[in-house]
Design goal:
4 helices; mainly beta; Fumarylacetoacetate hydrolase, domain 2; 5-stranded mixed β-sheet; single chain; 8-stranded mixed β-sheet; 34% strand; 18 strands; 232 residues; binds manganese (II) ion
Length: 232
């Protein structure tokens, strides 16, 4: 057995509704601008030809129900409520028609964003990492098996902050559907069990401040909760 100088924290994992074994997270991919109304509110055009991606390290992941500190280096911390897709089988250059076969399940997720830092990165044509990939920026609710979820397009995604609805859309409004995203991403990566894809956020993103309580729902999936605490 390999000996290490120190122990790393255990890999982040997502509980599955009604099951003992958890889903360990290998990689986190995120789709940008996958709802036309959100792209418009950010002043961007939707690319209907193909989705585009950024990533978050698994170390950025945290479970629903947490209270997180208002993150360092930002004055504009935003919520983005999204459907997450859990990959359960290897997929490389998979066809759209075959993509559902590699999806193990779904869960509600939050792509928390340092919007001011993302904006600076965009202006300076720098990577988005510092605005997107930081501690506690990827929040995951417990997942459900795909076979228990049914037709995605009819499900409604809603996020409220302190009881006020901020985001409300049908998953059917996605520009690129879940099978299209999985198929496209598999042209660039050997997708494998443990990979997770956040599928983009609808319109209504906005800032949160210390003391805010977020409550997100997607159809009958387990809800997602997050509380924002004071800055450290
Ligand atoms: Mn997002």
């Amino acid at each position: 057995m390999t000996r290490h100088l120190f122990e790393l924290p255990e890999a982040f994992s997502i509980p599955l509704e009604g099951e003992e074994a958890r889903f360990p997270v290998r990689r986190i991919f995120c789709v940008g601008r996958n709802y036309a109304a959100h792209a418009a509110e950010m002043g961007n055009e939707v690319d209907r030809e193909a989705p585009f991606y950024f990533t978050k390290a698994p170390a950025a992941a945290i479970a629903s129900g947490a209270t997180i500190p208002y993150p360092p280096g930002t004055a504009d911390f935003h919520h983005e409520m999204e459907l997450a897709v859990l990959i359960g089988a290897p997929a490389f250059r998979v066809a759209v028609s075959k993509a559902p076969e590699v999806i193990l399940g779904y869960c509600a997720a939050l792509d928390m964003t340092r919007r001011d830092l993302q904006g600076i990165a965009k202006d300076k044509r720098r990577p988005w990492d510092i605005g997107k990939d930081f501690e506690s920026s990827a929040v995951f609710a417990p997942a459900s098996r795909a076979s228990d979820v049914g037709a995605l397009g009819d499900l409604r995604l809603r996020l409220s902050v302190n009881g006020t609805i901020r985001q409300d859309a049908a998953l059917g409004e996605m520009v690129h559907s879940v099978p299209e995203i999985v198929a496209d991403l598999s042209n660039y990566y050997h997708l494998a069990p443990g990979d997770v894809i956040l599928t983009g956020t609808p319109a209504g993103v906005g800032p949160v401040v210390a003391g805010d309580v977020l409550d997100g729902r997607i159809g009958g999936l387990e809800p997602i909760h997050l509380t924002v605490g004071p800055a450290e």
